[in-house]
């Protein structure tokens, strides 16, 4: 499977930012990483950091490298997209199999009046990763999505605009992107998204589905089944809540901010895992209450405070509810 690391390095080689020996060294380092999503995420961030530091560049480098990426750099995913019968179908396929490219992204299309928006969301933003590195990676991804109509489907269709949440980069080669993409790029927006004319995105380009499409999608499904499990979102929510309990700042908005996503995205992703923010918060409080009670070192008032409850009566009610739900026998 072609990974994001390999695609970024191939684009850096094509653009002249790395030579072949440097690419081989970085690829060897990536190949030695354990098959663990968290470590691979840090590996990707490390490569972006090295590229930015080596060339004294800022996050605009993400756009520049994406302009140099080839369709062959994305393996089965690239082949599958090239067999889609409409642009909307292509974006949906990318969303469905996005974990083949990155384990912590969400790509989805939303319909509006007369337009369709393609939203790119980084579900997990490691707080230790520099903001410039995160922005470079997200600009890389969204620019690739903006290039997709022409590079993978050969369609003369451009987004109406490309919105990004990061600040404007320093002047540099990335500025050719608006000409190449055929649309304006607006920095400092609320999210990362592409806006298309709805009719253009929904128009079928082929009357018949190519036979290879079925084979490629089955191959993608099998490859997806072999991808290491996505970082456990529920566990990350619980970790954030545990750290926040004493402050009492345990709203879904607070935790979503820690994870670098919107409240709506967090709610939706938890629902997809058949979970809810309320249930996770309740479990975290119950587990911590049991631990504190076992120590015998805290009063109930103190425990109520440490769990983020506004009043001890609320804690007492929660304990009563937990006792009723405890297994018997």
TrEMBL record:
Keywords linked to the UniProt accession: DNA-binding
GO cellular component, one term: cytosol
InterPro entries linked: AraC-type_N, HTH_AraC
Stretches of the chain forming a coiled coil according to its record: none
Annotated HTH araC/xylS-type domain residues: 235-329
Top-level taxon of origin: Bacteria
Pfam families according to UniProt: Arabinose_bd, HTH_18
GO molecular function terms attached to this record: DNA-binding transcription factor activity; transcription cis-regulatory region binding
Gene3D superfamilies tied to this protein: Homeodomain-like (1.10.10.60)
Entry keyword annotation includes DNA-binding: yes
PANTHER family in the record: HTH-TYPE TRANSCRIPTIONAL REGULATOR GADX, HTH-TYPE TRANSCRIPTIONAL REGULATOR VQSM
Protein name according to UniProt: HTH-type transcriptional regulator VirS
Gene: virS2
